[in-house]
Each structure stands twice: as structure tokens, then as C-alpha cells.
Amino acid sequence: MADLPPISDETLEVLREIPTQTLIDGLWVKGWPMTFIEGAGPLQLGQKMAGRAVTLRFVPHRPDLAADKPKGEQSAEYVAIELCGPGEILVVDAMGWQYSSVGGDIKFLRLKQREVGGLVTDGAVRDSKALKEYGFPVYSAHSTAKQGPAEFWPWQVNDAIQCGGVLVRPGDAVVGDDDGAVVVPRSMVDEVISIAHEREAVEAVIKAQLEVERCSPGKYYPFNDRTWKLYEEKTGKKPKS
């Protein structure tokens, strides 16, 4: 991964306009596991999100951990926040503890100031009213009034983490829409975009044909030999995937 260039802002703009389900399909075509972040739903509908992952890992609370962890601005969550900007998504591994808060209005005010691309966690957020007003996309498993420190603590920044059962590595693309959030591994971004665009075109042909034939979708979907023949007849293009 070290020799791969960062995903460009131009590529992020392309990803933002591709439905999350189509991105998952693109990975599936290449034999990669599905990367839907389970439990991370949009705090409010109507927002689109695409950015490079900055990762933050939480660990369970223990008194000696509280004594050892860096304090103040050096605490892991603040270090991670300062790495974020308009092209970054803060992805927080909360171990799937959906009712435990990873932060609220005071901590995430700084994300607003940094014009962050978004926040994704398989845990909960506090102060949902304030977060909605901050304007950046938030995907979380829940909202809560509970504090987090009684249960877990931020610990590690920019290492491989899990979030909602999905591996997330720093620099991966994270894309969100009304259906949820997905991860596109940095090494697969260009291929997935190409496949996704083709699949959108194929599905448009299928839907148009189903309106004409009034037949079972199973004739053409999932994609099969008849699908590709129809696509070539209607577009003059040979399939790439």
C-alpha cells in the first residue's frame, strides 16, 4: 500500500456519484468480499459522502489504560481529527458497541471547523441535533445520551481497523449515501469505478427491456449470456467485466 498514490480529489468526486450498492457489486465481480459497514446508518438522509479513510480505534476501558493513554490534544481522537479535511472521512472502530458514544458536539465541532468529508462509526454518537446542524455526513449505529469513557477509550490512529465487520485501511475510499457506507480498497478504486459505470449502463438496458417485454427479471438478471448479448445489441459495446 505504501507505494500507491493517495486517491485524488477528482476520483472522490466520481465515487460520490456512484450508488453504494453498485460499488459493492464492482468488488464482488473481482472476487473481493462485500464492504458494507454493518450498522452504520446515515444520521440524516439526502447526503452523499466520499473521502479517504483516517482510522481511529477504540479499546475497552480499564483503569490502567486511562492512566497510560495520552492526555489532552495528544489523545488519539484529537490526533485523528487533525488529520482530517474535506477529502477525509474519520472512520471509528467502536467494536460494534452501538450504544456507546465515540463523541458529540464538542469534539466534533473541530470536524466541522476542518470541513471534514464525513464521520463513520459502528458505535453511537451523542448530540445528534448539533451534529446534523454541523453539515458533514455522519454514519453511526445509533445515537445516545451516554458518555463513552465509562466503557471504552480512543487508543490508536491510522492503523488497519474493523468497522462494522469490514477491514478499513488508512487511505481507502469510504463512500456513503442513503443506503449506508461502503469501503473501496485503495488498490481497487480505478477497477471498481470502471466496473460500476458499466454495470449502471447494463442495468439501464435491462430495465428498459423489461418494460418492453414485461417478463421476469430473471431472464436478464443476474447478468448472464442473454444480458450481455442484449447489452451489445442495444449499445454496440462489448462488455469489459
List keywords for this structure.
241 residues, alpha/beta, Glucose Oxidase, domain 1, eight-stranded mixed sheet, two-stranded parallel ribbon, 8 helices, 34% helix, elongated
Give a verbal description of the structure.
The protein is of the alpha/beta class. Helices cover 34% and strands 22% of the residues. The chain has helices at residues 9-16, 20-29, 63-68, 76-82, 105-113, 128-134, 189-213, 225-235, and strands spanning 41-42, 49-60, 88-93, 118-121, 124-125, 138-140, 142-143, 152-157, 161-163, 166-168, 173-177, 180-184. Strands 1, 2, 3, 4, 6, 8, 11 and 12 form an 8-stranded mixed beta sheet that branches. It has a two-stranded parallel sheet with strand order 5-7. The longest helix is centred in the last third of the chain and has 25 residues, at 189-213. The two termini are 25 Å apart.
The tally of helices reads 8
Structural class by SSE content: alpha/beta
- For this structure, what is the CATH homologous superfamily of the largest domain? Ribonuclease E inhibitor RraA/RraA-like
Mean pLDDT across the residues is: 95
- Beta-strand content: 15-25%
Q: Any idea what the radius of gyration is? A: 20 Å
- The global form is elongated
**So what's the oligomer here?**
single chain
Number of strands: 12
User: Which architecture of the largest domain would the CATH scheme give at its second level?
Assistant: 3-Layer(bba) Sandwich
